[in-house]
Amino acid sequence: MEYRPQEVEKKWSRRWAESRAYEVRPDSGKPKYYALDMFPYPSGSGLHVGHWRGYTISDVWSRYKTLQGYEVLHPMGWDAFGLPAENAAIKLGIHPAVSTARNVANFKRQLQEIGAMYDWSREINTSDPAFYKWTQFFFVKMFERGLAYRKKMPINWCPSCKTGLANEEVVDGCCERCGTEVTKRVMDQWMLKITAYADRLTDDLDKLDWPDKVKRMQRNWIGRSRGARIFFLVAGHADARIEVFTTRPDTLYGATYMVLAPEHPLVDQITTEAQRDAVDAYVKETLKKSAVARQVVDKTKTGVFTGAYAEHPLTGQQIPIWIADYVLMEYGTGAIMAVPAHDERDFEFAQAFGLPIVQVVAPETNGAGDSGQGRESGSGGFDGSVDASGWTTAVESGSAEAAAGTAAAVTGLYTGPGRLINSGPYDGLTVEEGKRAIVAALAERGIGEETVTYRMRDWVFARQRYWGEPIPIIYCDQCGTVPVPVEDLPVRLPDVERYEPTGTGESPLAAIDSFVHTTCPKCGGPARRETDTMPQWAGSSWYFLRYPDPHNDREPFSREAANEWLPVDMYIGGVEHAVLHLLYARFFTKVIHDLGMIDFDEPFQHLFNQGMMTLNGAKMSKSKGNVVNPDDIIATAGTDALRMYELFVGPPEEDAEWNDNGLEGVSRFLGRLYRFFDQHVEHPAPSRPELVKLRHRFVAQLTERMESFRLNTAVSAFMEYLNALQGVAGNGIDRESLETLAVTLAPFAPHLGEELWERLGHTESVFTAEWPSYDEQWLRDDEVEVAVQVNGRIRARLTISADATQESAIAAAKSNPDVAPWLEGKTVVKEIFVPGRLVNLVVRD
RNA sequence: GCCGGGGUGGCGGAAUCGGCAGACGCAGCAGACUUAAAAUCUGCCGGGGGUAUCCCCGUACGGGUUCGAGUCCCGUCCUCGGCACCA
Asked: How far, in Å, are A280, A329, A334, A766, A794 from residue A239 at the CA level?
């Protein structure tokens, strides 16, 4: 009988649906396993085979876990708020809810084609008021805890999307979504205080079973940096104190000038009249530059002297204060002490403006430096001499007029470890000792302290857009900013006539009087609603908590259900969410934990990022026109073949190039397997050791490849096994071998697995069966082939007893006729025996 | 610039504990079946030389460690990803 995948697949998908086979049975008494896909944004273009890859991997894994005896929660839903639906609405006038519903229906149909064991009774949709009610609930909770706050600040603004963006959404100075260059705009914005969780977000990465790459990206993003805050007084301004952040307090004696960010609030106050015009012009110029121009294009150092001097906190020396755009207002304190001898950027700046460079760290040469006279010029990276008298020149040359080249000290740049020099009482200390000693001294005098700074900023949690969760806040003239009471949630998204953001940067909701005008929940007086909506990342920051209890209308989820199923055991999705979604979801989880609603504080125990599917070397995308449509593949090769090919194509974590021929190979394999089964299933042979051995080895190899997630090689294990079975099929195949094949195949090709299982006479689903185990005793061989090397080169192969001793193996090797000529006239000086693998004879003339 | 991943046959990839490089599949070649083709089955399939079953070379490139290196170390080149004046 020929294998007709379409018939088999239709039959089983119908049966699964009729028997509601994949609805989770929370009372099954089995151990729980939560396998989750990153839920999709239901776009208009539908799924291509690249999307299939992650879903296939997670489904194979879910079914594997089912066979291992777990009660598996494998749900699916829709991240349904978002700009594309809204942009389509603007263009075509179709309500986003309508187009979203249509896209969801199409996505759902396509996802069902995968033959996955999704429990559709738990389907969720972030744009459903029954869901976003709880997204708003969490916002209110955050507001109550001071984690959501409103702030007037310059935010990233996308002129094309006409909306604010979080830092995470700005890539190379451009909007992550549309690529338009981002500008700054000062606006009142709702912010979430994710920085309050910066330490926990960094530290808790340690306990997660995630790819190092993603952990590294998150750590980078959070950018925790330990250092010191140091205060500098400004000469002649008793009330002005400049605070700097530095990771190198040990180099304090090498600070020869200071730099403020052009936007720094003290700039105006301390600038001297003589310098005012130059400073004003520079500040104006800087503000005009876009983020791109300032950060990416050109790193040539520019800056202007303010005319003011700061007092060195330890030496009392006066050092000039400059402004320059290489110092960013957003990071640290917006001001630095410049140590050109030991910081690359300061070095460039000092060179450009002829500022003095004073060496205060000398590289250490073997054991030297204890004397405190660390003057020996070590070789490594130290390309200049030390001018011990640098301090005098420091002050004198510190004017704006100082021409390049007049600075006295000609010294190099050195950023490595070493010992302190030119640092008064601290000479001779190592860099690390110096940091501690100098910070301690500053702290004692109240002019500095140890501190930690982060690169990460608070999260701009508002969009001036329509298609999102309304921020549940009411402004009352009497009571101020009041959250909408939980019992009044959800704040529903009203219908609007037009979806365009307003020219003023307000959301379209601002134009709807019936929405804006409301009464204050506190005093009952007239009040206005917030008209901004939440960013697309809001719903996805907690949706995984909803699946265990998706229909709960009294709370976002029951504590018991959440604690029972979460953390997610296996979370599968693309690496593009490494910082955005995954960081936000971790943050929300920690907040919800702190609210006392759950017992865990990390949402995803194990994360797996599948690689992209490429066609002609490029990521598949509808806009590029290089997509392979799964519907076409299914119509010819069938779902099971496509699933297997998605795995076979390459290591699951690596990108893979689509190849029709590869699919063909897998398709042929399934046909071969089916015919083989068909041939033997009616009249199985009695068992025999040969078959038992093959079976145990197959199960061992397959299980090992599953456990190490080498799913591409798991598929080849099937091919190897079938090849081996066909080699011995002349004497018939036993039932046990066929059963093993059917069960193990089922996670990969579930329809065929069920069909074969049924042909074996079973009336229950193959997924009620158990993943087979294997016995070590069948993995051992009585005899093994070992390679015989002479001086590391293979000269013969030898079959010996598996438990042969070193002596007997070497004796056998030496007497082998193929080996003997290589030993003739030589002396064997060393004999190596690796049991089961090889013998190596080392000879000399 | 900094951090990280990766360079293996004509192709996708195996070998991740330092121990027989090229599993498995694709493509190709030869053969069987067929009136013929498709499908299916069998054999060969890194390069060079002998062409007999043997020898030499070979995992980006150059060195090194080791009895033995795709695997470890140093350097170089290429490539992909992240961050990018983060003090």
From this structure: 22, 21, 18, 79, 83
Q: Are A124 and A160 spatial neighbours (Cβ–Cβ below 8 Å)?
A: no
> Measured from the CB, is A173 under 7 Å from any atom of strand B?
no
Angle value at C-alpha A625, between A619 and A630, nearest 5 degrees: 75
The angle formed by the CA atoms of residues A498, A501 and A503, to the nearest 5 degrees, is: 115
Helix (H) / strand (E) containing A827: strand A827-834
DSSP character string of A479-491: TEEEEPPGGG---
**Max CA-CA distance within chain A?**
109
Q: Is the ipTM of this complex over 0.85?
A: yes
pLDDT at site A365: 63
Q: CA torsion sign, A98 to A100 to A106 to A108?
A: negative
Residue ranges for chain A with pLDDT beneath 70: 1, 289-298, 365-411, 503
Smallest CA–C1' separation from A248, nucleotide? B87
How far apart are alpha carbons A324 and A58 in whole angstroms?
Answer: 51
What is the identity of the amino acid at A694? L
Q: Which amino acid is at A452?
A: V
Asked whether the beta carbons of A256 and A339 are under 8 A apart, the reply is yes
**Residue A250 Cβ < 7 Å to strand B:** no
Beta pairing partners, A797: A787
AA identity, residue A342: H
| pTM of the shown model | 0.90
Q: How many CA atoms lie within 13 A of A257 on its CB side?
A: 36
Nucleotides of B under 7 A from a protein CB: 3-5, 11-15, 19-21, 23-27, 39-42, 54-56, 67-69, 81-87
At residue A620, the pLDDT reads 84
Which 3-state string (H, E, C) describes A293-316? HHHHHCCCCCCEEEEEEEECCCCC
Contacts 24+ apart (CB under 8 A), A701-705: A702/A744, A703/A771, A703/A774
Q: Computed over its alpha carbons, how large is the radius of gyration of chain A?
A: 35
Nearest nucleotide to A326 by CA–C1' distance?
B85
Q: For position A484, what pLDDT does the model report?
A: 96
Which residue from A436, A268, A260 is spatially nearest to A349, judged by alpha carbons? Answer: A260
- Identify the CA nearest to A759 among candidates A676, A666, A635: A676
Q: Label the pairing between strands A257-260 and A183-192.
A: unpaired
Any strand B atom closer than 7 Å to A455 CB: yes
| H helices, E strands: number in chain A | 26, 32
Does the CB of A832 fall within 7 Å of any strand B atom? yes
Reported as type and span, the H/E element at residue A11 is helix A5-18
Between β-strands A257-260 and A318-323, what pairing exists: parallel, antiparallel or unpaired? parallel
* Structure token pair of residue A110: 């396509």
User: In Å, what is the separation between the CA of A456 and the C1' of B86?
Assistant: 10
The pairing of strands A607-609 and A570-573 is parallel
